[in-house]
Amino acid sequence: MVFILLLVVVISAILMGIFPIFFKRWNEVNVEEKYGTLKNCTKIIYKEIAVIWSKPLHNAEIKYLSKDFLSEAFNLKNYSRLFDLIDRYLIAGILTGFLGYIIWIFSLRFGEVSILFSITSLQFIATWITGYLYLKERLTPLQVMGIVSIILGVALIAPQV
């Protein structure tokens, strides 16, 4: 049972370590290419949505539950920029992060938090490996020392499980 718990926690850590890679790729492909920065993207989309949803506040003739407002507020053409941002990277990032956290929460029922939480530090190693393989990122010597420290720390804690 102990080894299954360790395996589940490691899988959770790997999933939680992978999801930032998908978000970084999503940012490079969708946000930077079209908007420049995530901040600029958020501003543009907020301005477009705010105009639709604040019309009843500015125009006394239109009320929030009126037919005119509802037809415009739920017209998907008005949200085309927002839907343009949804792609496989964003969906994969959300799914891996969500699945990793669900597995993590489930595993907490069967072990001590202080030990299991230390094992989840393996997510940093999973992030580095996928970043190296997928995004071609390189490590500095200080980062290598950090990864070695994580591995040694987990090796010291794992026998206590």
Automatic annotation (TrEMBL):
GO terms for cellular component: membrane. It comes from the Archaea. Residues 89-157 form the EamA domain. The keyword Transmembrane helix applies. InterPro entries: EamA_dom, EmrE-like. The chain crosses the membrane at residues 6-23, 89-107, 113-135, 142-159. It holds the Pfam family EamA. Keywords: Membrane, Transmembrane, Transmembrane helix. SUPFAM superfamilies: Multidrug resistance efflux transporter EmrE (SSF103481). This is EamA family transporter.
